[in-house]
Amino acid sequence: METQQTFIIIKPEAVARGLVGEILRRFEAKGLKIRRLAMKTIEPDVARVHYGHHADKPFFPELIEAITAGPVVIGVLEGPGAIAHVRNLIGATDPLKAAPGTIRGDFALQNPYNMVHASDSPETARDEIARFFGDE
């Protein structure tokens, strides 16, 4: 299986609830390596670009408000099949549909407050890593 890098955002609600360590522990317990990690606040202009594919949806303003509401932890995880593994660990986007044992299934109550964002493809991961970490 190909070694990949993927991008994650531990969202403001998870940071506020003190779940950063638990979320990162789950990724590490799976065998994924943390390659980059930072805490920051996402500016609205960056959030609008990041979630631009949802710009025409009615929930877009709430999504931007939620992701910019406080500090987030951004990171790059690496491992064999990292993108699929991370997506499986975080669970379905809708917390009501996320299986127990997943991050969203265990901790999230409603959208857009679903605890974690994760890249959904190698191209998206590459773009998101560049957007948030630049050419470091």
Task: Tell me about this structure.
The protein is an alpha+beta fold. The radius of gyration is 14 Å and the shape is globular. The protein is built from seven helices and four strands, in the order βααβααβααβα. The chain starts with a strand and ends with a helix. It has a single domain, classed as Nucleoside diphosphate kinase-like domain (Alpha-Beta Plaits, 2-Layer Sandwich).
Helix content: 40-55%
Alpha-beta content class: alpha+beta
Please identify the top-level CATH class: Alpha Beta
Major beta sheet, strand line-up:
2-3-1-4
Give the number of DSSP strands.
Answer: 4
Write the layout of secondary structure elements.
Layout: E1 3-10, H1 12-16, H2 20-30, E2 33-41, H3 44-50, H4 60-67, E3 71-80, H5 82-90, H6 103-107, E4 116-118, H7 122-133
Can you tag this structure with a few keywords?
single chain, 136 residues, alpha+beta, Alpha-Beta Plaits, 4-stranded antiparallel β-sheet, 7 helices, 4 strands
Question: What's a concise summary of this model?
Answer:
The protein is of the alpha+beta class and about 140 residues long. Helix content is about 40%, strand content about 20%.
